[in-house]
Amino acid sequence: MRRQRTRQLTYALRANLEGMAAYGESKKTYKDKTNALRRQKYRELINIGVSKSDIYKELLHIDCAKNKIFSYSTMKNYIRFVKDFAAFAYTKAGTSRVSVEDSIKYIQPYIDSLISKGDSPNTINLKLAAVCKATGQYVVDYTHPIRRYSDVTRSVKNAVRDKYNDKRAAAALELNRAIGLRRNELARVSINDIHIGEKCAYIYSKGKGGKNNVTLISDPKKLDILYKYMSQAIANGRETLLSKEQMNHDADLHHARAMCAIDEYKRVAEDMRINPERREYYKSFIKDIFKKYNKPLLEDLDKPYFLRGAGKKLCISQEKSYIYDRVAVLYVSLTILHHFRSDTTVQHYLIK
Fold first, then answer.
1. Rounded to whole angstroms, how far apart are CA atoms 109 and 112?
2. Helix crossing, 72-93 with 107-117: angle to 10°?
3. What is d(CA 247, CA 250) in angstroms, rounded to the nearest whole number?
4. DSSP SS3 for 262
5. What's the DSSP call for residue 21?
6. What is the pLDDT of residues 114-173, one digit of tens each?
């Protein structure tokens, strides 16, 4: 009987990833199942005297979403990352026809090579996550650098092509500084997605994992920018706020999103400083949103958010405050960034 040839590793890994597509499914459902199983396993292991460090590693092997990818953008990035891994495996094996099972022995050497090359901890962790997803392995089983929020340099340094993009991407950068969407959301947002309220505008968009997001813009200056691009789109007979030409660049729109969040944080914090009675309005708004989405509000709105560890050191080195107004932070989280946690907003956006 003729022996079947081994598929090229690139295609085998890609096929594994594509078979995990779960667009539109609820990520929270899998997360809740995972947490329930981890709690059960924790009780079992603690009762038989297993150390907490060993328990922690064991719990990380429980993941109900192990074979699920909920976002198309995540899928696209993972496919790109495993292609890089397959190229590395080829240099070691001398052939591209390496089975997925045989490729597992190259994972740690691949990570070691990324460390030697000087890749950031964030990049290495993303690539390792992609490779582990495609090969059925677990990140916790491999030696890799710890990823810290303060080490992330994305949207902090000037990009190589920033000077070129300042002209080509001027419209996208200006608009996104005002409304703070992700690149794909910005490219898709249309006139029909914008609802004008009293001294505000609501922008409806489809976010990561198919989430239905509503961005609230109430800063008068940013409303003027939004209305300008709405008028231009209508005048040009276009549904989307920006044309394909205006989106055809590699400018750092994530930086514009971060700056939008910082602007809004400063505006809200200043509003509460000048008008202390406004704090109750913002607190009520936050509570209503958490209630609307049936999420528990576990943070104390009356306590400031204090950065600790590496994040605190980074702020001190830059002579910036490491204390944030939690109400202003959560308001920005809910209205611009569509997160429900202060730490995500501070450490991924405001700290930079």
1. 5
2. 100
3. 8
4. helix
5. B
6. 999 998 888 999 999 999 999 999 999 999 987 655 555 545 445 545 556 667 899 999
Look up the pTM and report it: 0.69
Distance separating alpha carbons of residues 65 and 80, to the nearest angstrom: 21
Residue at 67: amino acid letter: N
* Average pLDDT of span 183-208: 93
> What pLDDT is stored for residue 151 in this prediction?
53
- What is the pLDDT at residue 2? 44
The radius of gyration computed from the CA coordinates of the chain, to the nearest angstrom, equals 23
**Spatial distance between the Cα atoms of 82 and 272, rounded to a whole number of angstroms:** 48
Using one digit for the tens of pLDDT, what is the confidence trace for 214-264? 999 999 999 999 999 999 999 999 999 999 999 998 888 999 999 999 999
Place of tokens 């200056």: 221
Return the number of other C-beta atoms located less than 10 Å from residue 13's C-beta. Answer: 27
Phi, psi for 213 (deg, rounded to 5) = -105, 150
The three-class DSSP label of residue 229 is: helix
**Crossing angle of helices 121-135 and 107-117, rounded to 10°:** 160
**201-222 residues labelled b (16+ CB within 10 A) or e (exposed):** bebebebbbeeebebbbbbeeb
Every domain of the chain and the residues it spans: 9-151, 162-350
- Nearest CA among 256, 266, 270 for reference residue 332: 266
- Name the residue with tokens 């528990």: 296
CB 330 within 8 A of CB 293: no
Identify how many contiguous H helices and E strands the chain contains and give both numbers. Answer: 16, 5
Helices (H), 156-277: 162-168, 170-179, 183-188, 220-235, 253-274
Q: What is the pLDDT of residues 282-303, one digit of tens each?
A: 999 999 999 998 888 999 999 9
Question: Do the Cβ atoms of 142 and 172 come closer than 8 Å?
Answer: no
Bridge-based pairing of strands 212-217 and 200-206 is antiparallel
At 206, is the secondary structure helix, strand, or coil? strand
